[in-house]
Amino acid sequence: MEISRFTALTWSHTVSPSLHLPQPLFAREARRLRVWCVTDQSSKGNQMIISVTGATGFIGRRLVQKLQAENHSVHVLTRSKSKAELIFPVKDFPGVKIAEEPEWKDCIQGSTGVVNLAGLPISTRWSSEIKKEIKQSRIRVTSKVVELIKSAPVDIRPKVLVSATAVGYYGTSETQVFDEQSPSGKDYLAEVCREWESTALKVNGDVRVALIRIGVVLGKDGGALAKMIPLFMMFAGGPIGSGNQWFSWIHLDDIVNLIYEALSSPSYKGVINGTAPNPVRFSELCEQLGHVLGRPSWLPVPGFALKAVLGEGASVVLEGQRVVPTQAKKLGFSFKYSYVKDALKEIIS
Ligand SMILES: NC(=O)c1ccc[n+]([C@@H]2O[C@H](COP(=O)([O-])OP(=O)(O)OC[C@H]3O[C@@H](n4cnc5c(N)ncnc54)[C@H](OP(=O)(O)O)[C@@H]3O)[C@@H](O)[C@H]2O)c1
Question: Which CATH number goes with the domain that contains 156?
Fold first, then answer.
């Protein structure tokens, strides 16, 4: 079975309502988060203006909430204003500017920083057209952002670009440990990540670039977990495949905080792995998930079931890589969730 390549890019976020899983974050949740964000981190004092591509996605939505809670200005760069306006209604997100592509230039010029998260989700069936679009969507948006930053007059040019990439950069292995110095893998997702990263690095030398190689993001409202939980409920959970494959995860709060730090701290530059300090084998993830859901972890979830909900993106979970956050630790980044057990408890509570 193959699930691990999906660790590298992203999951789409459909959740079965019948399972009473958390619903999308809107007003009530946004208010709760505002409190969380404000109490969670001290403001650095300097107000930033941040343009975000992919802001309407799983990570982006939470990042926008965090930036707003810390009193920064946010420009949502989207393909669809009407979709973004539903996600960020004015009454809950006053001052958030929403812009479609022709207006991106005006948003980026004058921004302090840009966060680049856009890309077609990988958890789909991978026809050759889809594979092309998984790569091209990322290269296209990243190139556009880089061109707009480069062409901005110096006095209104953003100072920092924080661009997403993924742990799929390293390829997969059951035995190796990967840090930021490790070479890239040979598979399709490794190739996507290499090209995505090299496109972001084409921005001018005076712009600080942080490339965040993101692991599987665990959060309430989407991502891998939202898709896996219904399967656990149906099959009583259990390791998928041998269970020996590695699962390099990170809690949504931590990836958002890491991106936030990368925006505001000049020492954050180059490649930074966005993974928790303690990746787990898949069998352990399943065991912990079983505990938290109150389901014994003994009946393996068949690979075909996972592929049915995740498409070839399931391969990200069925293979895997053990990625450690050496740079984030060197930079002194403080993880709220170092252990998957604590992350799952918080998410499923
Ligand atoms: N979530 C994870 O576990 C994970 C792991 C590793 C890496 N990553 C990477 O981190 C980034 C953000 O992840 P996420 O989970 O927040 O992603 P997401 O929920 O899938 O959102 C990505 C956003 O990208 C834009 N987008 C979608 N299809 C596109 C296309 N064909 N062309 C251009 N833009 C498109 C959409 O924004 P608009 O519709 O507003 O334009 C969408 O909201 C992604 O690039 C992902 O690959 C995520």
Answer: 3.40.50.720
